[in-house]
Amino acid sequence: MLCAMSRLVTLALLLACMPLQARTLSPIHVRHTHIDNLSYELDCLAGLVRCTRDQLPLADYIDAVDVERWRETARTALPAQDPGALALPTASDLRDISSRHRAGAAPGRALPPPARRALIDKLLRRTSRPWQRKLAPELARQRIGLETAASRIELETLLPQIATLFGQSSDDLPPVSLIAIDGARSGSLATLGQRVAYVETPLADTADSRLPVIVHEFVHYWQEGMSFAQRRELIDAFLSAPGDCTVTAYHFFDEAVASAIGNGIVESRLLDPAAFANYEALPESYYADYRVDRIAKALRARMEQQLVDGGMLSAAFVRDYVRIAREALGNECGRLDSTLHTVGFVLTSPEFGPAQRLAQDRLAPATAFIDVVTADGMRTAAKRHAALPVVAVTTPDTLSRLSNWVPAAVLERIRERATEEARLVHALPRDGGSTAYIVVGDTIDTAAATLLQLVVLQGEAFSGEWRPPPLPGSVPD
Known about the structure:
With 477 residues, the protein is an alpha/beta fold. It has 18 helices and ten strands. It is 49% helix and 11% strand.
């Protein structure tokens, strides 16, 4: 035993005295665990997170009953909904705001209740063979490659510079959990939840391809931790910025900045100049939304300069960002889906649900609040956040259910117009330059159809009133 202890002490001393360059030193902590991968796949199959659903390596071992049980138990395990990032909030909104523009926070990795714990224990046993024989060794290879790539591009120097932009430190980064995905790179996703960055990792891809995605999530982590004073300075700069693209630019701010840094700057350090030029020329190579992608690519050089200059993001940066976003988007600034990138739906009947889901699929917002208001005075996100863009759907006899956030005079004017027009959309200006679109139809069916016409046919944001075209089969007035 003494000899064995002596050998261990000697080995420890030798490791401590090795030259630094002989070891793989990484500023990020990367892990790959069976339970993280399994619970992520369950969240994905249950529709609880955005994910690459058709490339899950353990999905064949999970049946529909398991997924439904997981979805049901999630209702007791889900964290409270994040209020999301709003459109140019006023000072009274600021303390309620998180700067995140992403899907929910990986609920499957919260401390599970007994029913959920029993389910995952059963599935861990069922999936142990594919995990141990294939996925764990492949992810171990990916982890080593990631850490080597991080050292190669001197990420330990870059991360503190990035953290400083948001008044943060790089010393307390969340760990990175690698999630196995079959196949090669295909726009796979990452999400930050429970203080862990979950990163989809295509097993047929090179390990360093995940590094830009990881840094992208770290940027979101630091954005979320920005001080009230810094966030207030940035929002005040947006509020004072001239032009008609300011609200749209604000919608895409967090994702554009994270993409310019992670998918632009980090990727440029990993690839040789020719390969990076080819990568950057591809559509949506930075981000899978063409508007964010355009802004991020145009922003990269300004972001590089900001890292050289040092210091936190400030009002001067916001002014440059708005100008860059306006030039990058051009006419896209005024599109309805751009101005509703964050949106609150207010439905005065649950029967509007199917149409609302179709409208949301069409708009593809980053953050959506859905309130079904079945009585006057019910609390809604539209009431809580005065700057939130809103789409409300109602009939004339349920207009009063919007009275806690729509001025009485406006409701009365809409009610009068609804006696003249069977269907209409009234655009109501809100704080910070956003708009509420109040969709009215004389019946549930016509109001639902008008909502779909709004998002399909009316491409541009507007003010005042929009009269939709006749419905198929109807007789024009």
